[in-house]
Amino acid sequence: MSIAHLLEDFDQNPSPEGTPQLLTQQQLEDLRRDAFEQGYAAGLEDADAAQTSEQRRISADLIQSLQDLGFTYQEALQQMVASLEPMFQSLMDTVLPDTVERSFVHRIVAQLTEMARDQAGRPAIITVPSGAAEALAPALEAEFSFPVEMIEDASLPPGQASLSIGGDERELDCTALLDAISEATEAFLHHAKTETKHG
């Protein structure tokens, strides 16, 4: 009894008589070409699939890196603002007012010198805040040979003065610079805090 009916038949062109048939050279070349084209197409599909998968992975990694970088930037900015705020506050409360106070005398002397060029020999009148005359007197005596009268005015805030020689009058306000710096600092801190909240 034969088991041929149970086995797969691999004969491409079985002859009617059941005897094997030889392939021609052309048929063999066609088979080789078809096999090559099928293998090449399968290889291209695998390469495309691998490239697409790699591109997706790179895109996902890039997006994650950008998100991490953005988060790190926000954290760094938040920490910088948190550390700068006390320093700015100390600057506004202590350093700048002391600087303005020390420069007050120098600015009055500079303004009075400029005014005296056009009003030679005329007496000068300086109106200053209460308590400022004592600090100003030695500098004015050392710098000017003409008479300088000082009047203290309790209504003037620290850092402000009024100078007059002849018909020339000027107002001096050292606190305006301090106020401008204070406003700029507050605006910077507000902007930085807003940026850290909203990204």
Automatic annotation (TrEMBL):
Its keywords, alphabetically, are: ATP-binding, Nucleotide-binding
**Origin: domain of life:** Bacteria
GO MF, any single term: ATP binding
Q: What is this protein called?
A: ABC transporter ATP-binding protein
Q: Which organism is it from?
A: Ruegeria spongiae
